């Protein structure tokens, strides 16, 4: 298994191009199952999660061609030959469950593994299934699989989500595009990735309105057609490089970023004495003076994104003073705290609240990536630490960051991959 070896270095400087958004491209690839016509998706990063999604789509019988250099993928889900998900691929990636809505809508049946929990929480799919049942489907759960079917076409319905779940909003929205009648999703998630999926569905001929608000209205259609779509930039990768600039006291320019998706991150960085400036080339991030501590509470969009929480804990660990971070979205998303403590961080956890006393500097150590964003947070801490750091289990990081070590090296970081 590979590991990253990181030597602390001077402040990061230079420009970095932000890749396509993992959490937008995964539902969009699943949405290609809604039509028999060919779809072209652009700005697709060759992440391991994207490779898993390709395996899944091909397992259903779709034809997929992926120009990894040009980051363009073509998917043609003409006549699928299986409604059974590739169990191994589906088991590796929770987002595989996003194929349920499209297959149920188009083929009125699907058999797919129940996504397991992961490090950050149990992550049930009860809200997805509640929506499918309201649209007229039946379900059977056994042996870790869920079978969904509908004797006739799905019927539009009002669905109220107990929690503004991103995945449930996406799955129900996709299923509703081919249902008969109108579906209203209330208390819907409003993340930018929801809007990007809705944009793609509209290009396919779907009638979707209200995405980006808490109420989404879908008027079902008989069929959808193929479309061409360019995926939005990844706001969490962008936020990761913003924190990398902040933690090293550097000056970095983000290219191909949508600033409006980063408002909560920009606002929180400003509280920490980190400046951002919109230029013609992109978004510039630089620090003026000492990092200040922060009070941070993760919330569904437009609140502060839970995916940025670990990265800001790395920042708080070296911000002089007391920071308080509250994680309201996932029940177990502080696993990075134990690894940061090994680097000298002073962090106390009480249920969903973390109190961090900033220290002058962290020290390098051998640490382990426990999940995708936790791994990224350890890289950032290592960049600003005293002494070398080794990070193992970096497969977590590669799920969501495309060529992160090359991008950081281009900014002046001393990071290399080694076989461990
Ligand atoms: C998406 O996960 C993202 N993944 C996550 O990004 C992100 O952290 C999360 O949204 C929140 O923004 C993708 O888009 C592929 P949720 P998702 O459904 O859809 C509970 C990353 O690092 N819940 O909004 O699974 C759930 O347990 C990943 O890129 C139910 O109770 O998130 C959690 O506590 C991590 N029942 C909360 O809602 C359900 O049926 C938020 O989950 C569904 C969710």
Structure, explained:
The chain has 420 residues and is of the alpha+beta class. The protein is built from 14 helices and 23 strands. The chain has a four-stranded mixed β-sheet, with helices on one face. A four-stranded mixed β-sheet has the order 2-14-16-15. A four-stranded mixed β-sheet has the order 4-5-3-13, covered by helices on one side. β19 and β20 form a beta hairpin. α1 runs parallel beside α2. The site of ligand EPZ has 25 residues, from α1, α5, α6 and α12. Ligand EPZ binds next to α1, α5, α6 and α12.
Topology:
Elements: E1 2-7, E2 13-17, H1 22-31, E3 38-42, H2 48-60, E4 63-67, E5 72-76, H3 87-92, H4 100-107, E6 109-113, H5 126-134, E7 138-142, E8 145-149, E9 158-160, H6 166-176, E10 182-186, H7 192-203, E11 207-209, E12 215-219, E13 228-230, H8 235-248, E14 251-255, H9 263-271, E15 274-278, E16 283-287, E17 295-298, H10 309-317, E18 322-327, H11 335-342, E19 346-350, E20 353-357, E21 366-368, H12 372-383, E22 389-392, H13 395-398, H14 404-410, E23 414-419
Parallel strand pairs: 2-14, 3-13, 9-10, 17-18, 21-22
Antiparallel strand pairs: 1-22, 1-23, 3-5, 4-5, 6-8, 7-8, 10-12, 11-12, 14-16, 15-16, 18-20, 19-20
Helix pairs in contact: 1-2, 1-7, 4-6, 5-6, 6-7, 8-10, 8-12, 10-12, 11-12
Bound molecules: ligand EPZ.
């Amino acid at each position: 298994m590979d590991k990253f070896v990181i030597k602390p270095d001077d402040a990061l400087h230079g420009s970095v191009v932000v890749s396509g958004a993992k959490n937008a491209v995964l539902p969009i690839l699943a949405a290609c199952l809604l039509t028999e016509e060919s779809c072209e998706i652009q700005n697709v990063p060759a992440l391991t999660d994207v490779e898993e999604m390709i395996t899944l789509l091909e397992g259903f019988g779709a034809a997929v061609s992926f120009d990894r250099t040009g980051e363009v993928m073509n998917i043609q889900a003409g006549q699928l030959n299986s409604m059974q998900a590739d169990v191994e691929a589906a088991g590796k990636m929770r987002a595989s469950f996003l194929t349920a809505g499209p297959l149920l809508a188009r083929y009125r049946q699907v058999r797919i593994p129940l996504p397991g929990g992961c490090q950050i929480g149990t992550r049930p799919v009860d809200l997805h299934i509640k929506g499918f049942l309201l649209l007229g489907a039946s379900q059977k759960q056994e042996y870790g699989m869920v079978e969904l079917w509908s004797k006739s076409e799905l019927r539009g319905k009002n669905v109220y989500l107990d929690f503004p779940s991103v995945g449930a909003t996406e799955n129900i929205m996709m299923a509703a595009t081919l249902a008969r009648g109108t579906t209203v999703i209330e208390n819907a998630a409003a993340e930018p990735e929801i809007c990007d999926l809705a944009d793609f569905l509209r290009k396919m001929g779907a009638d979707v309105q209200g995405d980006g608000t808490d109420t989404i209205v879908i008027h079902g259609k008989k069929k959808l057609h193929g479309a061409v779509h360019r995926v939005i930039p990844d706001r969490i990768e962008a936020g990761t490089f913003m924190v990398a600039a902040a933690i090293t006291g550097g000056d970095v320019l983000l290219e191909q970023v949508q600033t409006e998706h980063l408002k909560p991150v920009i606002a929180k960085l400003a509280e920490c004495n980190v400046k951002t400036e919109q230029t013609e080339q992109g978004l510039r991030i630089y620090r003026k003076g000492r990092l200040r501590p922060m009070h941070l509470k993760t919330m569904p969009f437009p609140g502060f994104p839970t995916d940025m929480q670990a990265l800001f804990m790395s920042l708080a660990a070296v911000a002089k003073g007391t920071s308080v971070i509250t994680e309201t979205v996932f029940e177990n998303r502080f696993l990075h705290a134990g690894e940061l403590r090994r680097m000298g961080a002073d962090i106390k956890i009480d249920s969903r609240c973390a109190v961090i006393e900033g220290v002058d500097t962290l020290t390098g150590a051998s640490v382990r990536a426990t999940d995708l964003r936790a791994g990224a947070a350890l890289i950032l801490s290592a960049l600003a630490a005293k002494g070398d750091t080794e990070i193992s289990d970096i497969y977590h990081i590669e799920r969501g960051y495309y060529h992160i070590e090359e991008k950081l090296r281009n900014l002046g970081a001393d990071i290399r991959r080694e076989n461990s």
